[in-house]
Design brief:
By secondary structure, this protein is mainly α. The chain has a domain of 36 residues. It is built from 2 helices and no strands. Helix 1 crosses helix 2.
C-alpha cells in the first residue's frame, strides 16, 4: 500500500470521498493509465490522484501565487 504522501511537499490530509471529480479519457489514455497504475501497484483512482497532485504542483510553480484570504479584503 502506498502512502497518501506520494508526492513530496503534499500534506498527508485524508482524501475526501463525498464529491468525486469525474475524469474523461480516450480509450488509449485509459489503457495507458491502467498500465502505469498497474506498474506501480496502484488503483486507477490512486494513480489519477498522484498525477493530479504532480500536475497541480507544476501548475502552481508556473502561476503567480493566489492572494491569501486575509490579504484579499
Amino acid at each position: 500500500m502506498h502512502s497518501p504522501r506520494a508526492v513530496p511537499g503534499i500534506p498527508a490530509d485524508p482524501v475526501l470521498h463525498d464529491r468525486p471529480v469525474p475524469l474523461r479519457m480516450t480509450a488509449s489514455e485509459r489503457e495507458r493509465h491502467a498500465r502505469y497504475a498497474s506498474r506501480e501497484s496502484r488503483s486507477a483512482s490512486n494513480f489519477a490522484l498522484k498525477l493530479y497532485r504532480m500536475g497541480m504542483q507544476q501548475y502552481e510553480q508556473q502561476m503567480p501565487p493566489l492572494p491569501q484570504a486575509d490579504q484579499a479584503r
